[in-house]
Every structure is written in C-alpha cells, then in structure tokens.
Design brief:
Elements: H1 2-6, H2 11-23, H3 29-38, H4 41-45, E1 50-55, H5 57-61, H6 67-72, H7 75-83, E2 86-88, H8 93-96, E3 103-105, E4 111-115, E5 121-122, E6 125-134, E7 137-142
Parallel strand pairs: 1-7
Antiparallel strand pairs: 1-2, 3-4, 4-5, 5-6, 6-7
C-alpha cells in the first residue's frame, strides 16, 4: 500500500506505479508506516487536491539513529512533520518554474522555501521525481525529510 496511502487512486493504477517504483529501487514503506501512525490516512484519501512531497525509505534512513523511532512515538510531532510535506492544491513541476525564492504554505502551517536555481529544492530536500498525478493531487518524490522549524 505504498503510494495508495498518499494518493487515493484505483488499485490498478496503484499496482502499476508500485511495480515501477519498486523496480527502480524506490520504496515508501516508512512513509506509509508514519502516515498510519499519525492517523492521516483518511485525510490524505480525501478529495484534496494536495501536493505531497514524498520521502523515500532512503530519505528516512538519513535521519540520525533513534530519531525515527522517537518521532513515531510522538503522534503530535509526527503529524506536524508529515503535514509539513503537504501543500494544499495541485502544484505541478511546470508551475514551480517561476517560483524561485517564493514560499509555499504547508498544511502544517509553516512556509516551505522553493529554490529552482539548480534543479528543484523544497526546503532542504531535492525533488528527484515529479508529477506523479493522482485523483486527489500530485506527488513529488524527495531525497530527505523536511522538518518544520
């Protein structure tokens, strides 16, 4: 149920995307576990639209030892971190081209700085894959975890 949690899409489409990302070495099981632990499944399955910056398992692995376990045990902190990865509305890669230096407001409430000088960065994360279109928005894959200040 990797991408399905983030994006409420049909099983057929989910399965095709799941196979594609598994074959490319990308996995989202840690994100899925975190979304479930925070109680955000139903929220992310709602009509949206949402733009989700989805970190891979490799992104979670970059966290210092013990950090993930501590955050998973703190539902409020976990929810704040996860909703910091979500922007209301459907923001496609083409929309970001002219947004260098701007700030996108996250569902968590804090701003996320956008840098398009060398590729695309949101906060401290680099966007590695864009425009995974879903019935309730879009997913962009990122290489690190975004932590609100």
């Amino acid at each position: 149920m990797f991408i399905l949690i983030i994006c409420y899409i049909s099983w057929e489409l989910y399965y095709a995307r799941y196979r594609r990302y598994r074959s490319s070495g990308r996995s989202f099981s840690t994100l899925v576990t975190a979304v479930k632990a925070a109680g955000l499944v139903e929220t992310l399955k709602s009509a949206g639209p949402f733009t989700v910056f989805a970190p891979t398992n490799e992104a979670f692995a970059k966290l210092p030892a013990g950090t993930l376990e501590a955050v998973l045990a703190d539902k409020a902190k976990l929810s704040a971190i996860l909703t910091y990865h979500v922007v209301a509305g459907k923001v496609m890669a083409a929309d970001v081209v002219g947004m260098h230096g701007k700030v996108a407001t996250t569902v968590q409430g804090s701003g996320l700085h956008i840098d398009t000088a060398h590729g695309v960065k949101v906060g401290t994360a680099t966007v590695t894959k864009t425009d995974i279109v879903c019935s309730n928005g879009v997913i962009h894959i990122i290489d690190s975890i975004l932590i609100p200040s």
